[in-house]
Structure formats: C-alpha cells, structure tokens
C-alpha cells in the first residue's frame, strides 16, 4: 500500500485544542449519538482525563485541510457493549493497533479519526492522538453508532475494505489482509473479535485524505460537542435538557415513560434484545417497544413502527437528558424516547440498503420521520 513514507506535518493547518470542558461535553454528546451503543464513553473519558493530567492534549483539524494523499487511521473498539463493561478501555491497545497497521501496510499516519462518533468510540481516536501526538480529524464513518463494518460511509462509497488490524490486551494481533467485500470483512472480524472475548481495539482500512473528504460524515466531532454543550447548559440552567436537545437537533419526542421490561443476550458478538416502555402523564396508555442490536434499531408504538434506523433512536434519562445504553437500561427507569435525523448519506438507496431496518433482519422499510 505504501513505502514507509513520513507523515505530513500539516504545517500551517489550523488546529483546535480540546479543553477539559470540551471533553465533558463530548462524553454527553457522543453517548446520545451512540443510540444505545458504541460503548459507554465513561471509561474512555476517564482515560483521556488522566492523559490530560499528565500534560497531553488533543488537537482537532478540519477534514478539508487534509492533503489528498495523507493517510488517516480510523479506529474504534469493536465488540459487544456488555463485555466492554468488564474489559475496560486501554489507550495502549488502540495505539498498538495503529502501529501494527503502519508496519503491515508500509505507511505512516498523518492523523486519526473516529470510525464511529457514537458512544465510547468517539474517545478511541482521542486516546490514540494523545498517545501518538497526532491530530484528530473532525469526521467519522457512521455519523452515529452502528454494529457492523458495512454500515459506514466508506462502504456506501465502495472504498477498499482491507486491510484491518485488531489487537487485544494479552497481547494478540489479528490482521485481515484481504476481504471480498465489506460484508465479508464484517464476518471475518466479528468471528475474530468473538474469540478475543468480544472486545478488540481496531484500526480499520487506512483512508486517504481525499477519501475522508469525499466519503465520510464531516464535522461530527464538533457536532457531538455541540450536543453535549446544549444538554449540559440546559442542566445548569434548570431547563428541560430533552426539550433543549430536540430543538437543537430538530428531533422528535416519541414517548416519556417507565421501562417495564428488558430482554437481552450476547450472541455472535452482538448484544441483542428489546426494551418495553409504558407511557406516563400525557403518554399514559401508550407503549413503545424498541429492538436493539448493540444500538436501538426499530421502535414500535402500540405495535406500529414509529421510528427506524438509520434515523437515531435514543433513550434518554428523563431528568438529565443523558443517554442510556442498551447494556445498562433496566426496569423502572424514567426515560424519554426521542428520534434524531439520520446523516444524509445514509438516506441514499445504497445507504438504506446497508443501514435500514432490513439490514438488521426486520421485515419492514425505512419509516421516515423528518422532512429533508
């Protein structure tokens, strides 16, 4: 792929240094964009705060400032949310996955970026950036969180789907040198991840600056920051944070109520199940059932679909407005169920093929909620 070239120094490129307040906002915003998945950001957040206490910082750059032939590492921690509660984030592991990719592909990375901006995976590139002294690109490949490799903007654009490097804490390293297509890449990496304990730091196929600029969801790091700022400001000012979020993101409230039942199990490397929520107050007498595969995928109100992927279905704490993950949602919680608009690229024919409800095994079409 490459010849061991040195990375661009990006001299003259404007950089924004993330403050500790930004990190706090990112935790809240990324968790909401995770739509129940992407991993709890708390562990990555705490790791990054520790790195900041040691004097390290993270700088963010605009993707449009990347040289076309620079290489960018798109990283995440893949697996199932429930095992990740026991196998905590380790900055050294994701850093090792990046260095192993450079050695295998014969390249040097100029920057890192999130594979998905949702949940804890928003923090994986930040941890790597702090460790390696590289900037973070303000973009990602999902615009939210999804469980599978083909559910990305890079797959929608049909970019090359290999190589891929996975690493764990033992240490084991798995390199997938070639895959027939994105679906095959998902099958191979999911099987390997399951053997690694359903959690693995992953450096995904290297992307050029041109590919990032033309085939990713742009400025999603700052989007997550803005969402977090909106919710946290509402908390401070004693306003309804759910209402503040919906106004800021043009979202729709589906129901407020109490969790009455949860069913979940980890199978095939995913956390699958459903949650039932009974409406309270103005929603009394209504019910919503939400299916999930790591992330929430389809919501039914009184047995009729009312929201579907790729629109974002989020379950929020009714008082704080902060997200609740599929691995920790439980009986009795007072919640607000909301939907936020999907990224435009996911609403194309190819995007819906890869990320719509049928991609998750549901026998129904995308249920549009928003005029675009």
Write a structural description.
The chain has 372 residues and is of the alpha+beta class. The protein folds into two domains: 16-221, CV3147-like domain (CV3147-like fold); 242-360, Beta Barrel (CV3147-like). 30% of the residues lie in helices and 26% in strands. The chain is built from eleven helices and 18 strands. It has helices spanning 20-33, 42-53, 81-84, 91-105, 124-132, 153-156, 182-195, 209-215, 220-236, 241-249, 349-355; strands at residues 16-17, 59-61, 71-79, 111-114, 136-137, 139-140, 164-167, 173-176, 199-203, 207-208, 217-218, 252-267, 270-279, 287-293, 295-301, 304-308, 312-317, 334-340. A seven-stranded antiparallel sheet has the order 16-15-14-13-12-18-17. The chain is globular. The chain starts with 15 loop residues before the first strand and ends in a 17-residue tail after the last helix.
